[in-house]
Fold these 3 entries.
Entry 1:
Amino acid sequence: MGCLFFPSLTIAHEISIKGIVYDKESNTPLPGAHIVLESTGKSTTSDAFGTYYFADLAEGSYELKISFIGYETNRITAVVKAGETTTLVSHLPTARLELSEVTIAAGVQSPVNSISGIDIKLRPTRSAQDMLRMVPGLFIAQHAGGGKAEQIFLRGFDIDHGTDINLTVDGLPVNMVSHAHGQGYSDLHFLIPETVESIDFGKGPYYSNKGDFTTAGYVGFQTKNALKKSMFKLEGGQFDTYRAVAMLDVLGEKSKEQGQSAYIASEYLFTNGYFDSPQNFNRLNLFGKYNRYIDNNKILNISLSIFNSKWDASGQIPQRAVDAGIIGRFGAIDDTEGGNTRRSNVNVQLTSILPGGATLKNQIYFTRYDFELYSNFTFFLNDSLNGDQIRQKENRNLTGYLGSYTQRSRLFNKELITEAGVGLRYDEIQNNELSRTKSRRITTANVALGDIDQLNAHAYFDEKLILSPKLTLNAGLRLDAFKFAYDNHLDSAYSRESASKTTISPKLNLNYDVTPGLRLFLNSGIGFHSNDTRVIIEQKGSDILPKAYGAEIGVLAKPTDKLIIHSSLWRLDLDQEFVYVGDEGIVEPSGKTRRYGIDFSLRYQLTSWLFADADLNLTRPRALATPQGEDYIPLAPMLTSIGGLSFRLTNGLNGSIRYRYLGDRPANEDNSVIAHGYLLADAVLNYTRPKYEIGFSIENTTNTSWKEAQFDTESRLRWEQQPVSEIHFTPGTPFFLKVNLSYFF
């Protein structure tokens, strides 16, 4: 039966039912399971230990429904007696996904996570970037040979590489503050997609435990604590593309029964890409994780990872060069672009159940990060002899701590969940550089060079009051304090300048479960994103933590057993902000903005084996205090849609055919230049058996010519007398076939 344990729990009211939920196959506790106490209207979810409880129940017999997406539902009868605690144990086997078993009104859980739980079970993923696409309405674009962090679009934002979205992996921050290339730069390539267990995401600035960059939203990836099976995987495809993945269970089944597990995972990827100039892209990932249950009331997680990547790139090319036949669609003006990056992570988490029943979480992490990128966006605009190639480079140590305390209690006889948290993040960045170069080897000028120290301390307090089995009120307050310091190496005299800033972010949210199949929600809050240290120093510490004011109202509905609908109407206003343009080494002011829109998602089970999904997102992004007609926000998406059909047959055949649609967008402020959209179709087909899987995937099945990244850029080619401003683009993937073979043991 495995390792059965129950954390001690004594709180201000009497526990009537206490239980624990296990994954039957891996024999490990299953956090996030939904438990419904039928006929009472009460529901809850299992915690990090897989445990749950119901308190203050009258004597009698109760029916419990225990479910989790992708697992067989368990129904248990529990008899409650006065003064006694009924103890229950459930082992859930994996099973065919049935939307009829999905519970949308489960305690205080985020409504959108019902959607993400379905998607991760159904959609095959090829990369960490595919995992990002699990967020409804989120689009990405790559424009530097595959090794650079992707450009992200969400809720009317051109987020660049992460300025307005908070990304984490096991709580470890991905966003890099005051980065050499751009604020919030988020390179997810160190995440091996096969190690991902779940995805937590939310849109808007409504969450007390989410701080810097949480304006458009956040995405948190959680890696597996244990492997159900070890595996080897080989992939090969067009354009000299090869990938190998290995995931090995280190300790075995006996150790799982004793409450501990460990595994190691590795990934190697090589591709020349579809460009005329080979991208010579190499990536190596190593990841290890150890999980231990200690004394029945503690969980220790330790993970280590190493990531290294190097590549060449064609960059963005001008439309006029393609039209004139000077280069082909997949050609390059400067074929010496590219870069290399390395990242090593140590992450330690300890979760404890205290004698009074509270949960205490402590996490410490350390990252060593090195980055070097060569780009050329304007060719010979500024330097007609050597060209305009730039080098952006930095070396960084990132150290941090996260702590939280959660306690259940009673307030006026209503259940109250209190969470308080603190954290500290320190970025020590050495030789943050922007230089002008030629062919990567010759430095012609230093534009910016210096050392950055950035410290962010935070504290938050969050209360969830269960006013009734149907109504939950959530209020929170967050405090963030920053200290910025910059040592400019290009200043002949030693000059270390610093500035400090504090911001407060209140939140207020409401969930109302009209019926078990209909939840209404109202979210509101203030968020922010920090700006580059060099902006802060130049602005003398003023207007450097621009706030975001957000609100939304929506519904999560299950009108039939097989259909789930999520829809919301939202608005987000941003304060004045100053942006550090890492490619030019200058500060560029930007005024207030307003975005509002509608998000709509549905998940429908057509048959026992066929599923349909669709996401539609409409947004109106505009700059404020700007003349009408000149108030467009460049590259901000206004209409996006993602959807498809997924199937899972009992004979092992499974796969999907999916579409991605991005509408036309303004490429400049007066909409005189258009970034044209695209409609693409991708397909995946696998044959999965207990011991092996064989399959293939096709990106862009119709071989559509499309532009993945687009910018309205002023540039000059070597032979041109005058500069030209027009669309510069990175071509999107043509028809791209890959095959894969996996072995499980």
Entry 2:
Amino acid sequence: MRARLTAAFLAIVLGPLVLGAVFVGISVGRVTDQRTADRLQLAGSTVSTTVSQLCRSALAAATIVATAGESERPAAINTVLRQALADAVVVRDANGGQVASGGTALSFPANCAVDPPARPSRTTQPGIAASVQLRTSTGAVAGTVEAAFILNEALLTQLSRTASVDVTALADKGAPGLSTLPGDGMAVAAAVGDLLAMPALPATQADGGLMVRAVKPQRGQPLLLALSTPRQPQEGLYGLLILIVLLVIVIAVLVAWRLARTTTAPIIEVAGAAERVAAGDLDARVPVRGRDEVGQLASTFNRMTREMQSYVTALTVSRDQLRGNLALLGDTLSSTHDLDRILEVILETAMAATGAQAGVVLLVDRSDGSWPGTLVGQSGQNLSGRGVNPRDLRLAIGEGVLGGVAESGEPRHGRVRNPATDLAPVEPRCQTYIAVPFSGSGRGAGGSRAGGGRLLGVLALYDRLGADDFDDGDLVTLRTFAGQAAVAVENVLLHSEAERLALADPLTDLWNYRYLRVSLKREIERASRFERSLAVLAVDVDRFAAVNEQYGHTVGDAVLAELAHRLRAAVREVDMAFRQGGEAFVLLLPEADSAGAQTAARRICMSLRSTPITLPASDPTRRPTELSVRVTVSVGVALYPQHGTAPEDLLEAAEGALVTAKADGRDTWRVAGAPRRVQR
């Protein structure tokens, strides 16, 4: 197997390598020549542009001299030469005679504006010159002004530096004339010979390892030039490629042999360990020698044996954990009426039983009297990374996944494909979910029976560990915990209702005297701790015995119930109303001062004084069918700490003020002071 792996590796590696080396050797030479030709093409454009600039400079110099007056021309010529706008300037009359000149003498009148011939000749070497006509004031031609740059070594060196190549100016009969090459430029002149007849002027190889390109004269560029640069040698490159190929072959043989050995050794080890496992040895392990596929195979084999070995242990631990959670749940349900703690334990136990990563319990809130109500978050686990605070979670029945479960009364589990459409904006973000409604007695949401009774809430879990979807088995498990949640919620609600009934007056639905003593003590402690005020109002119906005598005790009870309703309406939501007994009531006004307490007392008196209590007649045939009973109340006001710091002292002070109000004519209020005892 090792030999086969070695031969296969060498065939796969060395075949493309040799072909690639041949291709690189051929391509590099072509690419090198092409890059040199591109360089010469760019240099030709640069040289042409530079010569064109010189032509424009010569034309500007001639124009400056031509526009100067006859007396000013010598000075203009000197200025042009001093500013290097031209090397020479000649002024001629209409007959061609020289009138004035400056700079180097011109041997011929070359002109940049003259079109070159279709086939340029190499018998003469044009200069870089420009001419402008002199005209009289009437417009007649009076002569010409010629300005030129002399073609010399300095100018040729400037062109060579600008283009970064060697420049040769061709002269008589193909002679190179001036050149920046170290030699006489004859090889360049010979290479350009056949290029002048070609329309495209490509680069060509000259003798001596040079690449040459010709630049033809044109309007604005009168020079016939040859650009040349050394051709890069390629023999050394071929030798380097051969050396690299040989070196790679040696390395490939060594690597192939090493790779075959390291590949087959772990496979042999895995095969031996598999035989031991087949014989019943679950402790067999394979050393992991890398992270490649063979290493992954060894790691997977080891993980498989570990999982097989720990399967029974994991089942035992899971069973014990579930028993412990159920025991904790049973102890919590039997030992506390703390709904938040009960729901927290139920949620934790459900998550442990199903392997969920997060969960939430929502209860139906119908406190505002709406039907079917609103789902409100009550308890949550691991929701901080899902953009949800369980206490802020509110969903209408029918909204999102959880609202849909509450509306239909049917459990649901699945995978979220698109959170924007599958989930409500306030629901926890997740990939998988399972949700079960739980119910007590009564009707379900939307008029349907949810689980056989009145809908109480929804229990939901999210994202099972291992990224697996929740299945029907998880649904059965969660239904069990949802049933326990329903029992817990109903028990707490029943306990709260029983506690409320024990502390409430059955006739008026106000708190009773027992709860008055507890609340008054608590409010005094709070007022003392925070240095706040507290007002106690003692309210008593004036001449209530006459109402019972005239209308009967049934009407009297109805009057007391309506009076309790008006007392609650006359005070703030934070204030508390109590029935002390008979027709006597007490109001606790936290953080109320004397002015606020008297305002509340005035409002209570005015409510009864201005609007009589209207009750339906006990006899339906009686006319009129409604009974109007006019009653008034007297109110005594006591303030903490002015009138006492103990509950008994405050109640006694308020009752003393009440006695004073009755003594002063009833249907009024008085603040605690020195009471006068009067007959009620």
Entry 3:
Amino acid sequence: MRKPLLLALLLLTAVLAWYLGRDLLVFAALLAVVLLVRAKVMLERRRQNLRELQLEQTSSRRLRQTSRNLDAVLQQLGMPPDSFKRSEINFKVNQLASRIEWLLESARSLALLDSLTQLPNRRHFIEQVQIESARSKRSRKRFAVLFIDVDKFKAINDTYGHATGDRALVAVSQRLKDTIRAGDFLSRLGGDEFAVLMDLSAIKNNSEQTLKAHAHLFACRIMAMFEELANLDNVSIDIDISIGVNVVDPDSSDPEAILRQSDLAMDQAKSQQHARVAVFDVATAKGGYDDYQLYADLKDALRQGGLSMAFQPVVDGEKRLRGVEALARWRHPSRGIIGPDVFLDIAERYRMMRELGEHLFQLSLDGFLALDGALQQPGLRLSSNVSPSQLSDPQLQARLLGMLERTGVDPKRVTLEITEASILDRSATTEANLQALRAAGIELSLDDFGTGYSSLNLINTLQPNEIKIDRSFVLALHTDPYARQIVEVIAGMSTQMPLHLVAEGVEDEATFQALRKLGIQYFQGYLFSKPLPVAELAACYGAAISAGT
């Protein structure tokens, strides 16, 4: 039917074209083109509709499959799918998702917790150090890591059994929990090792020395928590710990390296007899790897005059000069300044403290004579440090008194500073040295007072003329109630005994005035002067040292 009609239309078109001419033929051609384009558009639209229909069918199949899967899950949970409306099903699905999320979080927590103490484990601690390191780098605020080790834990296990050993670790963790502050992070690294990430961001004075003092003081507070016996069922055990303190540089980013530095400090703390707290120092760490080379270099410095002495003023409540403390210095030719804690420790370990101590005491006397001659101040005193190994040397009294006699320095103007560790387990030789030095008129000072276990008992034992309050308590006087309480107790005690009190580490006027009000008589710190060579110190007090001195 359509074909004859089409042929008729073509014939009619041809006839019209014959009669109407070429213009009508062109018009007809254009009309044909328009019709073809419209047909093509309609065809493409039909194809698009078909594709959309296919997608809807696919989506519908997926929805039906998801619904069947959901019904299966609900049936496993004991909830028939036909007994719930769709909104109720959605609610249950959300509950299920929350439960799964909780289980995943619980699994993560279990992976980050120590099963015995329920403290964060090593992995969690490393993650926290990474977070804190990134924050420290942005804010330039330091933090500290305290590495804590239980002393002789193997002996506890061997003596009382592993069950008691586990209870001891739980007791340690509880005492640590009771000590740390809200912003700190406590972890059990494994075995008998614990760590604390200490927040230092609230301390306004951001100097490294101040932060180290605060961290050291906090470590001392932790140590104080272990003075009492631990009652473990029917067994009472004396648990001792050692603590390594590392105030972390803001540019440090390797958590394992940060932990190693704290571990190195802890090892140093273990090597000390009683004050089992040590603060990490870069030079200390370096010495830990090549200390024999430092020992050889120290011997060269001793032979070639490479050591020197600086003097720091000790003033009274009116800031008048009353004495000076001699402090050893060593400028290494390639490593720069090596701290006295480092090279004195090396001298102790390599048994050269006798020779080194005598040399440093002679340098102290020479510098004091030059300073005394320049200042012409009657009653000016010299304080010099004596190590534990020197006190155990039978010849110490003879050598020191001989040097005083040769130089003409009156022994009554000399104070020897002794640490608590020097006299806690003193021998008959140590006692003989102390008695001979006292008899000659030399005064004794108990240095770093307050940081050890038995500070108060030592006063009766040693009967010192002077007590030097450790700088960690002084620096934290305004921010730590514990530090202020210690200083108040010491100040109150001195009123009942013939003792001079010297506060070390006085760095600002407010601290100076607060200490004066508490009854402290003498002061030492950067507020008055840093340790200086003799000529510079004399110039500060209006005197001059001749070039030949």
